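Many introductory courses stop at the sequence. We go one step further.
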Amino acid sequence: MVILSLLFSVMAYGQRYEKVPFGDFEQWAVRYITESKVIGGEEKTVYMVGPTDTIRGNVVYSYQNTIWSSSNVYAKVMGVTKTSTNVMPDRGPTGKCAKLVSQMASCKVAGLLNIKVMATGSIYWGQTQEPVTGISNPYAVMSWGIPFTKRPKAMLFHYKASIPNTGKLVRTTTFRASEFEGYDPPEIVLLLQNRWEDAEGNIHSKRVGTAMCRVEKSTSGWVMDCRVPIIYGDARKSKDFKPYMDLISGYKNMYAFNSKGKKKIILEEGWANPDCPVTHAIMWFASGSYGAFIGALDNVLWVDEIRLEY
């Protein structure tokens, strides 16, 4: 796996910046996956943020050379192969960028299943366990975060947003979709954690650093060099703290593989001291902030040139 020691460093105005691997989105792996004949049997394109590659066939993606995964899905549910793509390359301010879209994905098979899923476009540091075989707990098929020991001051990136803000959100279960009132701003996150494993293989963690923001409205164009500072220690004590920056729990619990290769919840149990060592980092960009199966249709977030400041 690519690790962050491979970040490219540049100096500017007395600060040191490191480019996140593939965070300029100039390189993508393109996968061609054929869906089951009962839903049309078409060959679909699925994009992965990582080294340039072309992969044909219904094969599991290897994460050996990238730290990124996404909400793009290669699934096989009840024997039916289905794909969903809501992350894709697009034209950015200097080259390619990542485009994240909130949209409805559906799978209809007469007499077998009729599934509708509200899917928020997202990219994140980690891996997705393929093929996805169910949607009851989407976070459980993801392994969140990468080993990381550095202490950056902030994260920087370019972004653009289109947020219709109709006041209506969609909630989907396995076979139903409903609407309710609400607002779903895109979300940008970097979490620094200190993790450890107990004798039973459970994964515990404390939050060392927090950088989070939400995009509250559409932009007229690209916002360049947006800077989100990292709050070390108990973020609740900062004047910049927002409720969404709190510890992760409940339905948003994240998972990772333990040392025995078993998937476990990352139990984020408290706030670490500001000088506590960092062992892992989680970064994600998403076109909404509600989590799985809930959100605003047609939100779009474009992202480019992700860097860390030291």
